[in-house]
């Protein structure tokens, strides 16, 4: 986000990206993130650092009927990738270790692949079921949550990019922003990040503060390949 744009509550900009706190509420229509008719075959290129151990979703795409179509969840010791309602695969990988992690997640046909170490390490997982071919253009994209009442992902995001092609998967480090390539050694000059902010007494789980983001507001955080 630039200084001229309104920063959502609970989101803190820093030099290389943004930090999500437990008060963040970021949601946008799927149509503002991906073009209509977008396939569930896609590649995610991520650079992030978790600040709190929990079971939060990094993001979730839900249909107009509130069915989960796509999502990534970080639980201690595992990454879970959802490609349909109650349909998922998991990888043994711990994001909640206080370190920066650069990775790519490729969803292609009946296979999900996790790439790490700039493509040197890769793990495949078979879906064993037929997934939805297209995302609901009338659905919603939630960042850091599965729904407005679930636990919030808390951490720093340097890069979150969506690509329609798997060509970038094996060499995803070539697609990392310059400031994210040094993520393992770079630390933002900020106060201690745990806890990031005191719990907001006015924001109770029963009355979440919903923030609707336009494409402009989310564009610097989630970017799609120019070919889209």
From TrEMBL:
Q: Which SMART domains match?
A: TSPN
UniProt KW Chloroplast keyword: no
Q: List localization entries.
A: Secreted, Extracellular space, Extracellular matrix
Q: Where is the Thrombospondin-like N-terminal domain?
A: 8-166
> GO cellular component terms?
collagen trimer
- The answer to whether keyword Signal applies is yes
Q: What highest taxon heads this organism's lineage?
A: Eukaryota
* UniProt protein name: Collagen alpha-1(XXVII) chain
Organism from which the protein derives = Antrostomus carolinensis
> What keywords were assigned to this record?
Collagen, Extracellular matrix, Glycoprotein, Repeat, Secreted, Signal
One Pfam family named in its UniProt record: Laminin_G_2
